[in-house]
Amino acid sequence: MKKKKGLIILLAVFIVLLLVYFALQSFNKKQEEKETEKEASEKIYVTDIEEVSSIRYNVGQGDFAFEKDGDTWYYSTDKEFPLMQSYPEQMASTFGNLEALRKLENGDSLEDYGLDEPVYTVELTDSDGNTTAVYFGNETQDAYYVTVNDTEDVYTVNSSVLADLEYTLDDMAQFDDYPNIGSGNLKKETITQGEETTVYDAENEDDAENIAAVAGGLGAVSLDTAADYSAEDADLPQYGLDEASRITVEAVYTQDGEEELLTLYIGKKDGDGNRYVMIQDSRIVYLITDEICNNILNIEE
């Protein structure tokens, strides 16, 4: 009987401790929420744009402009440019609600902050066609002085916000995926140039050295430099990539136990140690070194 009574007491103590634990958890959560709300209410924003539909800027890399149509962002100069969406999305997020470090009260004239002749200008247009211009003036420690439109209100913002704009077109391009190919998974390569066709087959023992050579070339390809982001059929002859001029390389390889086919077109030399190359069904013309192309084609220099 005493043992049973002791168990009941222990159970009661456990329940009380459990209730205290959950009460403390709830209290701490509410305190964290209050602190978060307080911090949010104390933040200062230079801009407050609900939906950014276009962005224009020049921060030393040249003039860039992006616009949004529906849910898709485009490079304004060339809508066929294969733009990676994460870049303009991040720009819109950062500059649509640009957070300030502080707002200057009773500040000096715009000239004193370099805002009479801004170093950089970022123009944002919202979905209603309203344009907001953010001007960047002098840099001070790790911040820039900025103002918006003609308000003459001066803020400081972290200089790191400009990092979202410091990309080249190559950085922002969504290049084609390229498979991992090596002598271990290359099954066959077929090279066609005009009426001439050459085949290297991994199942042919006599082709072992050839397969190793062309696999080394195929495995060294890196699609990271473009000569043309959206080549039309009429543009292909200048690259030697029209159907009558190009060399067609078909590589059969295995991936995850399945046979796959890569079709690569090799064109003219560019005069700087590279050749123009395209992947089948892509409109991007890439530059790949002569050395790699020679390996793919099994040509000795």
Automatic annotation (TrEMBL):
DUF4340 domain span: 73-209
InterPro entries membership: DUF4340
Name of the featured protein: DUF4340 domain-containing protein
Domain of life: Bacteria
